TrEMBL record:
It comes from Durusdinium trenchii. This is Ubiquitin-like domain-containing protein. SUPFAM superfamilies: NHL repeat, Ubiquitin-like. InterPro entries: 6-blade_b-propeller_TolB-like, TRIM-NHL_E3_ligases, Ubiquitin-like_dom, Ubiquitin-like_domsf. PANTHER family: E3 UBIQUITIN-PROTEIN LIGASE NHLRC1-RELATED, PROTEIN LIN-41. It holds the Pfam family ubiquitin.
Length: 386
């Protein structure tokens, strides 16, 4: 059938959710991935969740990419996979919870459903999923704890002010509870004067899977320190790599780090108002956030202190000077600005982020205001204990 004059040719797509819901959508042939996402939101029950779109074996990610260039044809079937992460463009008050905590909360990390928080004065606080404080103790560290991470079943703590990096072994095991000291110091790396952490990476998965003890021997911990990025082996603290930069990139004052899907190292370069995404294998620059040429207006970052990937692969950036969290897709597309007005930048503020990938809950430390906050698509997960 001929199309009416001036009307673009259209094609039909069949969309199926993992829950069994199905819908047929009609889009014009110049439609982009973003057009498809918007059509799905208007026709299907996506709730507040993020979701991924799969066509054949291809994940439809780049929002501005035309569907036809991704080999999506008339009659194609698209699979919608919901993710346990917020739709940050419509984050409501019911999806936030805030509690007071110890003085100057810095680094934080999830272990199961427990949230571990290290404060500036060296106190480790452990919270339940309802943000109820269930344990705290003084960490045996020098300096002031900043970022923390779990690696090979141990807690790794990086400290500013010549504190180095300290590994703590669980004494009574996990999960945390009451009653006794849970950690003893195993190893202190004094080769760094100040540090932030990038979590762990399994170097040889096949070898590590055979034996639990071997996992520790094949884990890397990434550390940022005074304008350098370093890589250490977890088992003995051996320095594997130390660099200022690479081809087409150089760090200024790197702070928070995170590893994404064992493929990318995200670096919050506080001194250069950007986040770098580097390949783990070659440490090559893949892209910057914000994207080149777009660092103006709402996309511009100011002293980003931390970056973390949520359950759907979105990147959340602690944007210190702008007193907010900026959300980007991994391709560099800006999604939303959230928690505006919650944070306060007093000139020496260091707030951090963590994500529970099992539940999708995002935790934030509000450094100078001595608060913790949780974000979740599901308000039922944000019932705070009195």
């Amino acid at each position: 059938m001929a199309n009416p004059e001036g009307e673009k040719p259209s094609f039909k797509l069949h969309v199926q959710s993992m829950s069994g819901e199905e819908v047929t959508l009609e889009l014009h042939q110049d439609a982009t991935v973003n057009d498809l996402r918007e059509a799905i939101r208007s026709k299907m029950d996506a709730g507040g969740s993020g979701f991924r779109l799969i066509s054949g074996s291809r994940c439809l990610e780049a929002p501005s990419e035309k569907l036809t260039s991704l080999e999506v044809e008339d009659g194609s079937t698209i699979i919608m996979m919901k993710e346990r992460s917020c739709d940050y463009t419509c984050l409501g008050e019911a999806q936030k919870a805030v509690v007071k905590c110890g003085q100057y909360p810095n680094g934080l990390v999830y272990h199961g459903d427990r949230l571990l928080v290290a404060t500036y004065f060296g106190i480790l606080e452990v919270y339940s999923s309802e943000l109820k404080l269930i344990h705290k103790e003084k960490l045996d560290v020098q300096g002031h704890p900043s970022q923390i991470c779990m690696a090979g079943g141990s807690l790794v703590v990086a400290s500013r002010d010549r504190g180095g990096v300290v590994i703590f072994e669980p004494v009574d095991g996990f999960p945390f509870g009451r009653g006794s000291r849970f950690y003893v110091t195993r190893r202190v790396w004094r080769s760094v004067e100040t540090a932030r952490l990038g979590g762990d990476r399994r170097l040889d998965r096949a070898r590590a899977d055979r034996e639990a003890d071997r996992v520790r021997c094949w884990l890397e911990v990434f550390v940022s320190e005074y304008g350098y990025l370093s890589t250490f082996r977890l088992s003995d603290g051996e320095l594997l790599d130390r660099r200022k930069g690479g081809v087409h990139w150089q760090v200024s004052n790197p702070y928070g780090l995170c590893i994404i899907e064992e493929k990318l190292l995200a670096v919050a370069d506080r001194g250069a108002d950007r986040v770098l995404l580097l390949s783990l294998d070659e440490m090559e620059l893949l892209r910057e956030l914000p994207m080149e040429g777009s660092a103006s207006g709402v996309t511009k970052l100011g002293m980003p202190n931390d970056v973390v990937a949520d359950a759907a692969g979105n990147l959340l950036v602690m944007d210190t000077r702008n007193e907010r969290v900026a959300v980007f897709r991994q391709d560099g597309t800006f999604i939303a600005s959230i928690m505006e007005g919650f944070f306060k930048d007093k000139g020496n503020t260091f707030s951090y982020l963590a994500c529970n990938v099992e539940t999708g809950v995002v935790a934030l430390s509000n450094n100078d205001m001595h608060e913790l906050a949780l974000l979740s698509t599901d308000p039922a997960r944000l019932v705070v204990a009195e």
